[in-house]
Write a structure and sequence with these properties.
Blueprint lengths: L7 H9 L26 E6 L3 H13 L2 E6 L2 H11 L10 E4 L8 H10 L6 E5 L4 H9 L4 E4 L4 H19 L2 E4 L2 E4 L4 E4 L2 E3 L3 H11 L6 E2 H9 L9 H14 L7 E4 L3 E4 L4
Helix pairs in contact: 1-2, 3-4, 7-8, 7-9
Length: about 270
């Protein structure tokens, strides 16, 4: 299953085969440790869906797209997981939720409402068969960040997830720091050893992707997808050109280098030893 696959028929078929909830599967922990030289992930996503066939399809596709996926099939279970780990700043933090509304125990609408009432603002994407305008309005009033109606394209689901997770990072106004390199996400400004460095918009985008996973190797494909999205770069070596410019601006004047190239594997940013 690829990102280009339109899953309308699969989602519709799975939605008709409702299954009641077994226990949630555990986290996919491979590559979780930032000190390990593994391929980077998009972030940790909790999928809350009681249709076992659909849940399996979503888990598989999101994993293929680079997300760490955890699942829950029941509302109370999902709420407990989110209240415990939706605000955890460690590696186990749940970065976004794909939430069905028709759930056993506690419905998705109530899950979302209780989350917000408890002060947990983890991004929530409601994915449901309820597509009327009134349903969507109610979903946003309950605290959802986005709303997707079944059947939907898996590619669109991934794009919307990335968008709400990106907005969440900006909302936090946080900065990324690796060694003496600092990037302020809110102002899009960069400093090396306390000295501001002027970067282009694309250079900033490439650097922010690398710095978001310090010490972890990102494949060329993952970086291109994160920076250019569905838009194809104008030349095959455009990423390499941006990496070369970043090295000239960030590494050459200061030394030592923050940006590593692993031939035939990808790139990483790490604090110099």
């Amino acid at each position: 299953m690829t990102g280009a696959l339109v899953a309308g028929t699969q989602v519709a078929r799975a939605s008709r085969a409702r299954a009641s909830g077994a226990a949630a599967t555990g986290p996919v922990a491979d590559g979780d440790d930032p000190s390990q030289e593994t391929m980077a992930t998009e972030g940790r996503v909790l999928v809350v869906e009681d249709d076992e066939q659909l849940l399996s399809a979503l888990e598989r596709h999101l994993s293929e797209e680079g997300f760490i996926v955890e699942t829950a099939r029941e509302g109370h279970e999902a709420l407990a997981m989110l209240l415990r780990r939706g605000t955890d700043v460690g590696t186990g933090r749940i970065g976004a939720v794909v939430l069905d509304l028709l759930l056993p125990g506690l419905n998705g609408r109530e899950v979302c409402y209780r989350l917000r009432a408890a002060g947990c603002w983890v991004p929530v994407l409601i994915a449901t068969a309820f597509g009327e305008v009134a349903d969507r309005i109610q979903g946003f009033q309950d605290g959802a960040d986005d709303y997707l109606v079944k059947p939907f394209s898996l590619g669109e689901l991934v794009a919307r997830l990335r968008a709400i997770m990106r907005r969440d990072a900006w909302r936090e106004g946080r900065s990324l720091e690796v060694g003496d390199l600092r990037l302020d996400l809110a102002t899009q400004r960069v400093w090396r050893d306390g000295q501001e460095v002027d970067l282009s918009r694309r250079e900033l985008a490439v650097l922010s992707v690398l710095m978001s996973r310090p010490g972890i190797v990102l494949s060329r494909q993952a970086i291109v997808r994160a920076v250019w999205g569905q838009e194809e770069p104008k030349s095959a070596n455009l990423l390499e050109q941006h990496i070369a410019k970043l090295r000239r601006k960030l590494d050459t004047p200061f030394n030592p280098s923050h940006i590593d190239t692993l031939p035939k594997v990808g790139y990483r940013v790490r604090a110099p030893r």
